[in-house]
Amino acid sequence: MRWVLAPLYATGLSALVVAAFAFGRRDARAFMPRWPMVWFGLLAVLFALVALRHGMGPLTWVTPGALGRGAGIGLLVVAAGLAVVGSRIRLSADTLLGEAPRSLDEGVEALRAGCSPGWGVYRGRLASSDTLLSPGGVVCAFYEAELRVALPDGRKGSLLSVERAYAPVLWVRGTRVRAAVSFSPKRMLTPQRISRSGLGVVPGAPKKDRPEEGVLSYERVGRLGEECLVVGELRNGPAPGVYELRGRKGGPAMVILGEARAETGRALAHRAWKLFAAAGGLTVASACVLAA
Length: 292
Hints:
Layout: H1 2-24, H2 35-53, H3 64-98, E1 102-103, H4 104-112, E2 118-128, E3 132-133, E4 139-150, E5 156-166, E6 170-173, E7 178-181, E8 188-189, E9 192-196, E10 215-223, E11 227-236, E12 243-246, E13 254-257, H5 261-291
Parallel strand pairs: 1-2, 7-12, 8-13
Antiparallel strand pairs: 2-6, 2-11, 3-4, 4-5, 4-10, 6-7, 9-10, 11-12, 11-13
């Protein structure tokens, strides 16, 4: 069995080396998903256990007791991280469900009067420092798009490319004032829209994926002038007359486009409870490992 499994073991180690170099590139981290790293991590643990079975590998350097304590502490750290993320999502959900949106002009008037409007939901219209054009031809402040071959039966065709762009500065405009938004792509909730791309038919596509419809763009777009909600803290900016919307501890605020406030709040609350449940399960598993 050792001679049979040896080529597979060598192939797995080679795959881990290739993955380390591929994901270690700075430009690769911008468009490669993170979940494959989890699977590669599990693969590395599997090969380490196989090596331990034959008395080799890095796991032979530690005692079983120290390995168990390390695994228990690692599970506890992951559980704490999930609980922190869940609490942040829960805070946004409670804000959306418990407070009516206020206009940006009202919040700025409160700031000028010496009051702190604090954390809340602010309503305005999207603006940006630069004007972008999505692959579907929408004038916007940001977009994330998947370009796929259009198939006649309505199914998603093969993926051609993934494109995304964001204006350097995002604004929310009221009737008389505006505020800069500290944003992150992960904190933007935007519905997906499907539109025709201007690329036409892809010349190198297979014959079955070469319909007359051409290319479709599955994109999430922040249209300029579109009404939006921002969950964050309104405060004075670095200069007089400048205002900012930020998240907790100065982080990115949550930007919601094209979705009902109550539905979004309930969806976020459901996501938070899932994270809390996962954190509870990992905590129980950590206690069992540490007690063994």
